[in-house]
Amino acid sequence: xxxxxxxxxxxxxxxxxxxxxxxxxxxxxxxxxxxxxxxxxxxxxxxxxxxxxxxxxxxxxxxxxxxxxxxxxxxxxxxxxxxxxxxxxxxxxxxxxxxxxxxxxxxxxxxxxxxxxxxxxx
Length: 122
What we know:
The protein has helices spanning 2-11, 43-60, 87-102, 113-120; strands spanning 17-20, 67-74, 106-111. It has 122 residues and is an alpha/beta fold. The chain has a three-stranded parallel β-sheet with strand order 1-2-3. Helix 3 (87-102) links the parallel strand 2 and strand 3. The N and C termini lie far apart (43 Å).
């Protein structure tokens, strides 16, 4: 269904953006729940596999979007990775971004309010 909508939207000359939440629920700056069956130990691998699956499915259906947003209101705890001040989460985002960019799709991040406050207070 999503592929069909993206393809029709692109054919109408519009730019498209989809957000990959990496969660079974809506995510917010202070709530980043992993999907069922994911653990902090396998979250990066699962997120990478999920991203590849989405990209391959959309590509096969000629429905790649103009842009993909990694997560919703992400911050230091992306995928529950809080070690090193959350640096591991940002490394995971960079890895995922590279996969998306390799398909010719732009990437965006939707930073949560907590992250924005932290950045602007530095």
